[in-house]
Write a structure and sequence with these properties.
Layout (H helix, E strand, L loop, with lengths): L2 H10 L8 H17 L7 H23 E3 H8 L23 H6 L5 E8 L2 E7 H9 L5 H13 L1 H4 L8 E2 L4 H8 L22
Antiparallel strand pairs: 1-2, 2-3, 3-4
Helix pairs in contact: 1-3, 2-3, 2-6, 6-7
Amino acid sequence: MSGRSRSMDRRVGQGVYGYPIEIQALFFMSLRCALLLLKPEAEGNKDIMERIVTRLHALSYHMRTYFWLDFQQLNVIYRFKTEEYSHTAVNKFNVIPESIPDWLFDFMPSRGGYFVGNVSPARMDFRWFALGNCVAILASLATPEQAGAIMDLIEERWEDLIGEMPLKICYPAIEGHEWQNVTGCDPKNTRWSYHNGGSWPGNKC
């Protein structure tokens, strides 16, 4: 294997776990773009393209299965059993049902869904992130049904996600002790500032 192939293999062969939705969606889009740009007849490209296709399948399965949340999946998570460790475990990441935030039950409509912020052992970041979900649609990381559900969610929760301003970057904003722990009391990231639920200035067109 050439040096170029080994370098590409390291990038493409990295795991699909532990990254937030926007990183996963952008990575998926970059892999699809690479697949279009590479010439199959060039030396070493066939092997690279096969590895890209393998990674695309793994990443799309991981995201569509474990990051997706709608009303039906919320009910499944709410009834999760913990401490399951065999390959037959339903709760693959040992998510604790008590970690579901109270705001989510009011936010999640019966029609619609979205990709959560992140999934890691024993914890899910249930917040809505606009960039990751929008890029997931553009990159076809979301299935057609999921893409439609994301748009349905935006329509159903228009006042929360858009209201009188451009699309909020995330919802809801974190505050109180959680804000102190996550941001280190950074005044730039106060409640509803740009990095804590603020709007996208670029969307004022």
